[in-house]
Amino acid sequence: MRAVVLTEPGPPESLKVSSVERPEPRAGWVRIKVEAFGLNRSEYHLRAGMATNAKFPVIPGIEATGTVDLAPGGEFAVGQQVVAMMGGMGREFDGGYAEYTVVPAGSVVPVTTDLDWATLGALPEMLQTAHGSLHTGLGIQAGQSILVRGGTSSVGVAAAVLAKEQGLTVFSTTRNPQRLEMLRELGVDHPLLDDGNVAAQVREILPDGVNAALELVGTNVLPDTLKATAVHGTVCFTGMLSDAWTIPDFYPIGYLPNGVRLTAYSGESSDLPATALQRYVDLVAAGKLPIRIDRVFALDEIAEAHRIMEAGEAVGKLVVRVS
User: What sign for the dihedral angle of Cα 241, 242, 246, 247?
Assistant: First the structure.
């Protein structure tokens, strides 16, 4: 089969499309014929040498979408439409950047849809991260307000759309003034230009601050996001678009505003139940959930796709169509 192989960390050109042996699943694992996969920031971290749990050489990719090719344990029927994500994919064992991938059955979620493969391929990890951040990390409720910091990332777009669909007033940020209108088109109530002082902008509109905030940029802007949040509100740290992951000399009383809660989310496929995934997929298919795909690549274009992801040039999801 054809697969993207990364022998060691390096620039985008380190991702080589190669001919490799098709993997064989053992009991409890499932082989998937991959039709499409989305790109994720953690795959950039792997390629750039920032991943701590990776082995090399490796086929990257923390998600994949396609059909079951073989399931020795009988967990799924051959030909069944599925998505797979996380569980060590693309780091601890070979992932989704391939024509076939073998993953633990627990990382596989069934789905039924007539969506084209590229659209379905954009959804699994993006929806899992957005859904888990909103419900596990933040515990959102209809009628609340939410700030999405890093709103034009794929997860930021999905989180804003899901929050709006579930009855929240949505604030969302971008550093590019040309993207403010795109956020409005997605249904964001208050698109904000991120000038480093988002808290002041939020409190001009909501003097008490937002009920919830999703941090996707990193620890470099986290103090400002905390300041934008109301007393008894919650900030969920999920993303690190800036590659700023840690807080030096963290002193909670000096760092956290009074009464503002800080949580985090780093999920698995089990955090997106099949019923929730199917509901979201059905909403996308019905045109009621406007998920944005920036562009679709062929497998041979993986290096260019990574270059665009690393440069932050995409608005929404980057997808690779395998076949």
Answer: negative
